[in-house]
Design brief:
There is one protein chain. The protein is α+β, with helices and mostly antiparallel strands and 434 residues long. The chain has 16 helices and nine strands. It is 46% helix and 13% strand. Strands 1-2-3-5-4-9 form a six-stranded antiparallel β-sheet, with helices on both faces. α10 crosses α11, α11 packs antiparallel against α13 and α12 packs across α13.
Length: 434
């Protein structure tokens, strides 16, 4: 860490704005107060979606000090005290909103203030969406978090992780930028490392022409058409007219898995784990109830680990939605109706329309896929205009979005060495935005 960075850290104010009295927000206030260089070991964890994600842990010296304080309080109160609050949190830094969504000259105070105002609006909007999610899926389905706007340092190393070609586009990098910082409770379950206790319900876009890079087989037009019509609620002739109900269900699940290969492990798990199956049915019903209200914002069900089922100590399972709120302004589910009508009327689609069509259709198909795998009768009913657009017409229109990205001039990849502890520490705690 350079002397200049150390100075920036030590002079930065860590107090947060007044927070409502609640256990979670009190904890956030404590976390912010402890984000000073001598107390923390920050480490770069990765880039997910719109966020650069860090974990922040207390130093051994700080932990030892807190152990001593906890023992003292135990003697005074007779109750056990928590030693290390920092270990339960992750810090999501959304540089994208500042640098991409609001690309202003941050050296200009007036333009910087405009960005700060817009980021504050983003926070209010996100808080409303969290309340909405909890009303449909339950309070504990959405992790506790606190978002704020803070002035955070921006190093070339971190900037390079966001989008390499920005290095040539932005030569006027400021030393710090107003940034969305979200402190979120850390969940320890990892579907990849511990599949017995965590199951990822998400699956990637079926229309992405790059899906084979993820090890998934190419989806034929015939299989796409059948799966799309099945998930849209259109009539699909049974493969075997003499099949029993169970056999037809198996055939249906095979069609779904062709479109969403990553749901295969969900199909297999619900067949052998009764409690998992029960929670899957409950979660699918909640998803359908949400999605059929088409004036609501669409959810991001494509991102890895965005929708999870976690096993509890009593062997039951619980739905967990760590990151289903898309960044930026919400896209209403019913926007798909206008896009469908444009296709039917022969109007050309803009790239934004194709992006919205791809994400909304994916969400609707995903919800009905979960409902079918869970073997419940509830489905999201599709508007007539959406059903009237032939499946392969949807596919060709949406593929144009991905084809544009795939044919853009490739950017020379630069080797990205891991951020070391000192580099990661330069991000926190940042300065409070007035």
């Amino acid at each position: 860490m350079s002397q200049e960075q150390k100075k920036m850290f030590l002079e930065s104010k860590t107090e947060s704005a007044p927070l409502p009295e609640s256990g979670v927000q009190k904890k956030v206030e404590v976390l912010l107060q402890e984000l000073v260089p001598e107390n923390i070991e920050a480490s770069y964890e990765g880039k997910g979606g719109e966020h650069v994600v860090f974990t922040v842990r207390a130093t051994e010296k700080k932990i030892e000090k807190r152990r001593e304080e906890a023992k003292k309080k135990e003697k005074e109160k007779g109750s056990k005290e928590r030693v290390d609050e920092l270990r339960d949190s992750v810090y999501k830094v959304n540089y994208y909103a500042s640098l991409y969504k609001y690309p202003h000259d941050f050296n200009d105070p007036e333009k910087r203030d405009i960005v700060i105002e817009k980021l504050a609006e983003d926070i209010v909007r996100r808080e409303k969406q969290i309340k909405l999610l909890r009303s449909y899926f339950g309070f504990h389905a959405v992790p506790a978090e606190q978002s704020m706007v803070r002035m955070l340092p921006l190093s070339p190393e971190i900037f390079n992780r966001l989008k390499p070609d920005w290095i040539t586009e932005r030569q006027d990098l400021p030393k710090e930028v107003p940034t969305l910082l979200t402190i979120q409770r850390r969940f320890k379950a990892d579907p990849k490392k511990d599949p017995a206790h965590a199951v990822d319900l998400t699956s990637y876009y079926a229309d992405d022409v790059k899906r084979m890079k993820g090890g998934e087989e190419e989806l034929s037009d015939m299989d796409y058409d059948r799966a799309h019509r099945l998930l849209m609620g259109a009539r699909v002739e049974p493969k075997d007219p003499f099949a029993t109900e169970d056999m037809e269900r198996e055939n249906r699940n095979r069609d779904i898995v062709k479109m969403f290969p990553k749901l295969l492990h969900v199909v297999e798990r619900q067949q052998v784990d009764r409690k998992f199956s029960e929670e899957l049915q409950k979660s699918a019903r909640q998803m359908v109830a949400y999605a059929e209200n088409m004036h609501l914002p669409m959810l991001d069900v494509a991102g890895k680990n965005n929708v999870l089922l976690l096993k509890q100590k009593d062997a039951s399972w619980r739905l967990f939605l760590p990151d289903v709120i898309p960044p930026g302004e919400p896209t209403r589910i019913d926007e798909i109706i206008e896009i469908a009508q444009d296709i039917l009327d022969g109007n050309p689609l803009e790239i934004e329309d194709r992006m919205e069509a791809g994400t909304i259709l994916h969400f609707l198909r995903f919800v009905n896929a979960l409902a079918m795998i869970a073997n419940i009768p509830e489905r999201v009913p599709m508007p007539k205009a959406v059903l009237d657009v032939p499946s392969l017409r949807w596919r060709r229109e949406i593929e144009k979005r991905w084809q544009k990205e795939a044919t853009e001039a490739p950017v020379a990849k630069q080797k990205k060495a891991p951020l070391d502890t000192e580099e990661a520490k330069t991000v926190f705690p940042g300065k409070k935005v007035a």
